[in-house]
């Protein structure tokens, strides 16, 4: 099991969590388990979620070409709005799909869009953070 590179630190940490559920005592505080997991974390560090980044200016330049708005088909205008919302908020597409017209509020200093449905990162009995869009 240890001589394969297939399993990462997260896998072993999940094993530890599973064992702590079924075994008595606090296995996570055991000195041998802690030392073992520390060595695993050093030999198999976590990988970054993303391998590459991209330049948003390329997308903004493409969007800028789609002007004037009154000549755009509604579908293209919707794509432009979705792209801009994604860029300025950093929200997932799932979150943007939960936008409801009745939860959009226009205020003197900007626009506020409330997402009241549960999203991937929702926790039980916690409020969603409210991001004002300016």
UniProtKB/TrEMBL annotation:
It comes from the Eukaryota. This is Tyr recombinase domain-containing protein.
């Amino acid at each position: 099991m240890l001589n394969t590179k297939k399993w990462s630190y997260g896998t072993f940490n999940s094993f530890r969590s599973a064992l702590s559920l079924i075994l008595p005592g606090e296995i996570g505080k055991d000195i041998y388990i802690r030392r073992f997991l520390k060595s695993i974390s050093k030999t198999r560090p976590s990988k970054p979620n993303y391998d590459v980044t991209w330049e948003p200016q390329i997308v903004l330049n493409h969007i800028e070409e789609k002007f004037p708005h009154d000549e755009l088909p509604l579908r293209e205008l919707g794509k432009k709005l979705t792209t801009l919302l994604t860029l300025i908020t950093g929200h997932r597409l799932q979150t943007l799909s939960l936008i409801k017209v009745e939860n959009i509020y226009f205020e003197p200093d900007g626009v506020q869009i409330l997402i009241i449905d549960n999203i991937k990162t929702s926790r039980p009995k916690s409020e969603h953070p409210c991001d004002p869009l300016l």
